[in-house]
Amino acid sequence: xxxxxxxxxxxxHDDDVIALREGLAPVFSEVGVDLVLSGHDHxxxxxxxxxxxxxxxxxxxxxxxxxLVPTDGxxxxxxxxxxxxxxxxxxxxxxxxxxxxxxxxxxxxxxSELPTTAFWAQDYTPDFSNIQISPSELTVTTHNVxxxxxxxxxxxxxxGTPAPTxxxxxxxxxxxxxxxxxxxxxxxxxxxDRLLDxxxxxxxxxxxxxxxxxxxxxxxxxxxxxRF
Length: 228
Prior knowledge:
Blueprint: H1 15-31, E1 35-38, E2 44-47, E3 49-51, E4 54-56, E5 66-68, E6 74-79, E7 91-92, E8 98-99, H2 104-107, E9 117-121, E10 127-133, E11 137-144, E12 150-157, H3 180-186, H4 192-204, H5 214-225
Parallel strand pairs: 1-6, 5-12
Antiparallel strand pairs: 2-6, 2-9, 3-4, 3-6, 7-8, 10-11, 11-12
């Protein structure tokens, strides 16, 4: 998703992002999402594992190369910076104060960082990320575009994941239940149409042209509705 629910950039304090965070983060935890990738804030930010909007902080200071083993309902959020060099956002602290040319080493583990932030970086150069997926692990490796510098690397490990299917073996399709999404939403006391209306309200905030995307969100919800 483009707008980042969690980041050290300025938009994390915007009303529409707060609504997005409070509305969708609990749902992502509820339905078993492992990783959420975002942009918009143009400052690399990796969260702690999140249960809804609540960070699950480790005993040690997060670092490049972290290996995370989430339990049910825990989600990792990664916000990328620009890959083209179009623009960069400065670090914004918990009070919304902007601090240019700040490095993580200067504030790591302090109250200047948002409580949801595990790791962040802003060196005002473009980055790109590579994602490697296996049956039991997912690794996000982020590099600087202009150098071999490693910006961050984090692995989500699902211990106890079933072994991969033997090559050539027949995979039995899982029966789809189109009513599954409605049942899931009913747990929250809302309908699918109400969720779509809410998404439209969030997306359209300040930019009516985004309304044309709503039919696509309807298709996405219908697609995933058979798999929740």
